[in-house]
Write a structure and sequence with these properties.
The chain is of the alpha/beta class. The chain has a single domain, classed as 3-Layer(aba) Sandwich (Undecaprenyl pyrophosphate synthetase), CATH 3.40.1180.10. It contains eight helices and six strands, in the order E-H-H-E-H-H-E-H-E-H-H-E-E-H. Strands 3-4-2-1-5-6 form a six-stranded parallel β-sheet, with helices on both faces. Helix 5 links the parallel strand 3 and strand 4. The N terminus is likely disordered. The chain binds 3-methylbut-3-enyl trihydrogen diphosphate (2 copies) and magnesium ion. One 3-methylbut-3-enyl trihydrogen diphosphate binds next to strand 2.
Length: about 240
């Protein structure tokens, strides 16, 4: 059953920590950039599968605030690949009704790439079939620090600091809390992804490396989600 059928056990908002590109490449004796390239193909497949499976919002972790610590040539290859993905893959998805938005810092991204990101956001703004959020130069702690700064600069009084006041000052307040967070590659941690938003998310970990992920993996994670009992602290 998919979310389209109105089943409450279906995940409408899904987040994915797309991990394992490096190991995928290493296992084949390929440069790490090839792993990231294959990862971009997996993203395309997964977005198409998500549409078919009734997911309405998909948030994917593509580059973290900590990933700047990688070798400069790898960082450069990821930046280039995002540019290529915006040029080649995302327009096709836009034709299928995908709205793409980026969540993360923008100030450290090369100017040309930032312009491409903004153009894609503007061009897909009215698409409604699936909302794709690409977390790029994203880190939850940095996001929360920024939210606190805004609370202070807005002159919010201590007694008016509420969960809503914080949630409304996150980088993308409209990004829905994920029902389900999937992490590929066997690692079992959040690595600074959507810490506030995932307070009550169901977590699914799979050993599949991200470049090998696709419809089957998404289907399996959604089935696992459907079997869970969510209580949100209540009986
Ligand atoms: C995830 O794959 C992509 C990014 C973090 C940009 P990795 O590159 O982290 O893959 P592993 O963990 O080294 O296998
Ligand atoms: C998390 O993966 C970031 C992304 C998938 C973009 P990492 O590979 O960077 O995380 P750690 O270092 O294993 O925690
Ligand atoms: Mg990794």
């Amino acid at each position: 059953m998919t979310a389209e059928s109105g089943d409450p056990a279906a995940a409408r908002s899904v987040a994915i920590i797309m991990d394992g590109n490096g190991r995928w490449a290493a296992a084949r004796g390929l440069p790490v950039a090839e792993g990231h390239r294959e990862g971009a193909r997996a993203l395309r497949r997964t977005v198409e599968a998500a549409i078919d499976l009734g997911v309405r919002s998909l948030s994917v972790y593509a580059f973290s605030t900590e990933n700047w610590a990688r070798p400069p040539e790898e960082v450069e290859s990821i930046m280039e690949l995002l540019g290529e993905t915006i040029d080649r893959e995302l327009p096709d998805l836009a034709e299928q009704g995908v709205r793409t938005r980026f969540v993360g810092r923008r100030d450290r991204i090369p100017e040309q790439l930032r312009a491409k990101m903004e153009t894609l956001e503007a061009e897909t703004a009215s698409n409604e079939r699936l909302h794709l959020w690409i977390a790029f130069d994203y880190g939850s702690r940095s996001e929360l620090v920024e939210a606190v700064r805004r609370i202070v600069s807005d002159g919010v009084r201590a007694e008016d600091v509420t969960e809503q006041a914080i949630a409304g000052r996150l980088l993308a307040p409209e990004l829905p809390d994920p029902d389900l967070v999937i992490r590929t590659s066997g690692e079992q941690r959040l690595s600074n992804f959507l810490l506030w938003q995932s307070a009550y998310s169901e977590l699914v970990f799979t050993d599949t490396l991200w470049p090998d992920f696709g419809e089957d993996g998404l289907r399996a994670a959604l089935a696992e989600y459907a079997s869970r009992g969510r209580r949100f602290g209540a009986r």
